[in-house]
């Protein structure tokens, strides 16, 4: 299947897993004033990402042998009165004489800016990314296999879709913003685009790995050696982002490209989940769940049991295996 995808997209579907240097020598403390909006973004000079966390053993629920298995759940939480998170899932498959690989677009966006602004920003961004992505990839996927249509470079498709969404939010919701983590899976190939502090994890071959980097102030301070994990967990500015969709032109998008193992799982979630449910508990819930849907439902329950101070979204997709 992977060879078919490489042929389908001209062998240009992978850029290789991003390997990033460690954080630089600790700098003097960054002086910041608490923003009036707890979901505001702040400018901060760019610093390369930390490496992925160490793998930890985990057993997955059994999925389908032929198609994607999907679980998804969302809740407003126990404190907020409205939901600024958006999840969007589109999948497709074609069987018969001339089959195509299973494909899907999976999105989690967490809006900022307060009631209506955050909701609108996350919805506009998610819809725009999905539309821009499908407009580029569907003609190639559905083309006659005997023809030779132009094949898009998937990493460029995903980056351009995010930039299009950024312009749409800047234009349509000028006082709002949103995180956005978007995953395109074609067969066994994952291309992921990411801005903000929603997260993506890959669970495969006994490992649990965070593959996105939080674009948050506390993450930057941790990388600079100015905060420990424990300090970051209770920092008063832990929700402050320095990069988000809708915060102006010149957006830089993180792109991750991976070949996924058969049977592996991708988890996308907003910070309403990972901020309040530790990785170890997330792994335990997945390990003990009979299905991905049961796991997503229980993850939402765990976040609410921890107080549910934020909106909570979880999307899981498992490859055939």
Explain what this protein looks like in three dimensions:
By secondary structure, the chain is α+β, with helices and mostly antiparallel strands. The chain has one domain (55-318): PPM-type phosphatase domain (Phosphatase 2c, domain 1, 4-Layer Sandwich), CATH 3.60.40. It has helices at 2-8, 117-142, 154-172, 217-223, 229-233, 271-274, 279-288, 292-305; strands at 69-75, 85-94, 100-112, 177-186, 189-195, 199-204, 207-210, 254-259, 265-269, 312-318. It is globular, with a radius of gyration of 19 Å. Residues 1-56 have low confidence and may be disordered.
What's the SSE blueprint?
Elements: H1 2-8, E1 69-75, E2 85-94, E3 100-112, H2 117-142, H3 154-172, E4 177-186, E5 189-195, E6 199-204, E7 207-210, H4 217-223, H5 229-233, E8 254-259, E9 265-269, H6 271-274, H7 279-288, H8 292-305, E10 312-318
Antiparallel strand pairs: 1-10, 2-3, 3-4, 4-5, 5-8, 6-7, 6-9, 9-10
Helix pairs in contact: 2-3, 7-8
Write a compact overview of the structure shown.
With 321 residues, the chain is α+β, with helices and mostly antiparallel strands.
The CATH class is identified as Alpha Beta
Structural class of the secondary elements? alpha+beta
Order of helices and strands: HEEEHHEEEEHHEEHHHE
Average pLDDT rating: 83
Shape: globular
Counting DSSP E segments of at least 2 residues, the number of strands comes to 10
What labels describe this entry?
disordered N terminus; five-stranded antiparallel sheet; 8 helices; 321 residues; alpha+beta; single chain; Phosphatase 2c, domain 1
């Amino acid at each position: 299947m992977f060879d078919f995808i490489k042929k389908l997209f001209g062998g240009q579907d992978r850029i290789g897993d991003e390997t990033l240097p460690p954080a630089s020598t600790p700098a003097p403390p960054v002086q910041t004033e608490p923003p009036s909006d707890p979901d505001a973004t702040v400018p901060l000079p760019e610093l390369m990402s930390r490496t992925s966390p160490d793998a930890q053993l985990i057993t997955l629920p059994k999925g389908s042998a032929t198609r994607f298995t999907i679980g998804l759940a969302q809740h407003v939480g126990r404190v907020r009165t409205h939901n600024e998170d958006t999840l969007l899932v589109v999948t497709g498959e074609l069987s018969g004489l001339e089959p195509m690989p299973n494909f899907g677009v999976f999105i989690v966006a967490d809006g900022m800016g307060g009631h209506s602004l955050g909701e609108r920003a996350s919805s506009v961004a998610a819809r725009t990314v999905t539309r821009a992505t499908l407009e580029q990839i569907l003609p190639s996927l559905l083309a006659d296999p005997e023809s030779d249509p132009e094949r898009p470079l998937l990493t460029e498709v995903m980056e351009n879709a995010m930039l299009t969404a950024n312009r749409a939010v800047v234009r349509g919701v000028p006082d709002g913003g949103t995180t956005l983590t978007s995953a395109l899976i074609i067969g066994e190939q994952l291309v992921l685009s990411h801005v903000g502090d929603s997260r993506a994890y890959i669970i495969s071959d006994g490992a649990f790995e965070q593959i996105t980097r939080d674009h948050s102030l506390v993450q930057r301070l941790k990388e600079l050696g100015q905060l420990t994990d424990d300090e970051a967990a209770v920092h008063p500015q832990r929700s402050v982002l320095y990069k988000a969709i809708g915060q102006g032109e010149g957006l830089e998008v993180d792109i991750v490209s991976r070949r996924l193992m058969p049977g592996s799982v991708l988890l996308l979630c907003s910070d309403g989940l990972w901020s309040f449910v530790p990785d170890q508990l997330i792994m335990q819930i997945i390990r003990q769940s009979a299905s991905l849907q049961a796991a997503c439902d229980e993850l939402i329950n765990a976040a609410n049991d921890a107080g549910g101070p934020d909106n909570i979204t979880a999307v899981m997709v498992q490859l055939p295996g």
